Amino acid sequence: TQTVSQSDAHVTVFEGDSVELRCNYSYGGSIYLSWYIQHHGHGLQFLLKYYSGNPVVQGVNGFEAEFSKSDSSFHLRKASVHWSDSAVYFCAVSLSYSSNTNKVVFGTGTRLQVLP
Amino acid sequence: AQTIHQWPVAEIKAVGSPLSLGCTIKGKSSPNLYWYWQATGGTLQQLFYSITVGQVESVVQLNLSASRPKDDQFILSTEKLLLSHSGFYLCAWRPAGQANSDYTFGSGTRLLVI
Question: B3-113 sits in which CATH class?
Answer without folding.
Answer: mainly beta
